[in-house]
Specification:
The protein is an alpha+beta fold and 293 residues long. The protein contains eight helices and 15 strands. Strands 7, 8, 9, 10, 11, 12, 13, 14 and 15 form a nine-stranded mixed sheet that branches. The protein has a six-stranded antiparallel sheet with strand order 2-1-6-5-3-4. Helix 5 links the parallel strand 7 and strand 8. The protein is globular, with a radius of gyration of 19 Å. The structure holds pyridoxal-5'-phosphate (PLP).
C-alpha cells in the first residue's frame, strides 16, 4: 500500500493515512484484542457488503465487543472512504479493537473501541495464476480453535505465508488431524472423483464470503460443488484444488508441496466455477448501478 495520498478513517474522522495514529496502549497492539474485515471493491462498489458486515458483527459479538457503529453508519463510512480515495477496483479493511487501556488482560470497563478503516487499490491477478495455476504448501494447523472469528491475531498465518514464499509458493494450506481446514488467507476446495468439496463451517474455518458465492453459483448452475470434509489424503490426490478469497477470487492450485495437482494444469471445473463467480460479480455490480444507494 502506498501511503501517499491515501485517506484513512479513524474513530469518526477521515484523514491522511500517515496522520492516522493509535495509542501504543491500544489492546489491538498489546493483545491482538480485535477483529477485522476485508471487503473487495469492484468499480467503486463494495461487493457483498452486507455479508461482510454481518460477519464483522458476528466476530465482534463472539469476542464480547459491542458494535461501536450501527451497520448503516458503517456502510455509509465505507462508501465515503471509497469515494475519498477514488477507488475503482480495490479493498477496504475495517479493523476494530477493544481500544486503549492500561495493560490488563481482562476487559477494561470504560474503554472506547478503536475503529480503523483503510482502502487500497486491488493488486491485479496475474494472468499466469489463472492459466498456469499457483503453488501451495501444506502445514499442521497450529492456530487456535476459534478460526471462525476473523481475529487480528494472525501470527501463525503470517509465518505460514512466509514459509510458502520461501519455498516459491503463494499460499499455505492448514491440516488439522489429517483434515483440511483452510488456507493461510483463503478457503480451500478439492475435486475428488469429479466433485468439489470445501471444508464445512466450524470452529477451525472462517466462513468465507467468496466460498459462499462459489457454492451459491455452483448450486444454481447444477455444478458438482458442495461443502464437506476433505482429508489430507484426498487433498494430496485431488484432481483439482482451488483457493477462494476476497482479494484473489478463485485460484487454481496446480502444485502442492512440490508435486503436481491432478494433470498439473488448471482443471475444467475450476474454469466453470471462476467464470460463474465473475459473472455473479458483474451482474451484482450492474444491479447496484441501477439502484443507487
Ligand atoms: C483464514 C482465512 N480463511 C478464509 C478467507 C476467505 O474469506 P473471504 O472469501 O471472505 O475473503 C480468508 C480471507 O482473508 C482468510 O483470512
Amino acid at each position: 500500500m502506498t501511503l501517499k495520498g491515501t485517506i484513512a478513517y479513524l474513530n469518526g474522522t477521515f484523514l491522511p493515512l500517515e496522520e492516522a495514529q493509535v495509542s501504543i496502549l491500544d489492546r489491538g497492539f498489546q493483545f491482538a484484542d480485535g477483529v477485522y474485515e476485508l471487503i473487495p471493491v469492484y468499480a467503486g462498489w463494495p461487493f457483498r457488503l452486507q455479508a461482510h458486515l454481518t460477519r464483522l458483527e458476528r466476530s465482534l459479538a463472539e469476542i464480547g465487543l459491542g458494535a461501536p457503529l450501527v451497520r448503516r453508519e458503517l456502510a455509509v463510512r465505507v462508501a465515503e472512504l471509497i469515494r475519498r480515495n477514488a477507488t475503482g477496483d480495490g479493498k477496504v479493511y475495517i479493523q476494530i479493537t477493544r481500544g486503549a487501556a492500561e495493560r490488563d488482560h481482562a476487559f477494561p470497563s470504560d474503554t472506547t473501541a478503536t475503529v480503523v478503516m483503510t482502502c487500497a487499490p486491488a493488486e491485479p491477478i496475474p494472468e499466469t495464476w489463472l492459466s498456469e495455476g499457483i503453488a501451495a504448501i501444506t502445514a499442521e494447523d497450529i492456530r487456535w480453535a476459534r478460526c471462525d472469528i476473523k481475529s487480528i491475531a494472525l501470527l501463525p498465518n503470517v509465518m505460514l505465508r512466509q514459509r510458502a514464499a520461501e519455498s516459491g509458493a503463494l499460499e499455505g494450506i492448514w491440516l488439522h488431524q489429517a483434515q483440511v481446514t483452510e488456507g493461510a488467507a483463503s478457503n480451500v476446495f478439492a475435486v475428488v472423483a469429479g466433485e468439489a468439496r470445501t471444508p464445512p463451517d466450524g470452529s477451525r474455518v472462517l466462513p468465507g464470503i467468496t466460498r459462499d458465492v462459489v457454492l451459491e453459483r455452483a448450486d444454481e448452475e447444477g455444478l458438482p460443488v458442495r461443502s464437506g470434509p476433505v482429508t489430507e489424503e484426498e487433498l494430496k490426490n485431488a484432481e483439482e484444488v482451488w483457493t477462494t478469497s476476497s482479494t484473489k477470487e478463485v485460484l487454481p492450485v496446480t502444485r502442492l508441496d512440490g508435486q503436481p495437482v491432478g494433470s498439473g494444469r488448471p482443471g475444467p471445473l475450476f474454469r466453470r466455477v471462476r467464470e460463474a463467480f465473475r459473472a455473479r460479480v458483474a451482474s451484482e455490480l450492474a444491479q447496484a448501478r441501477e439502484v443507487p444507494s
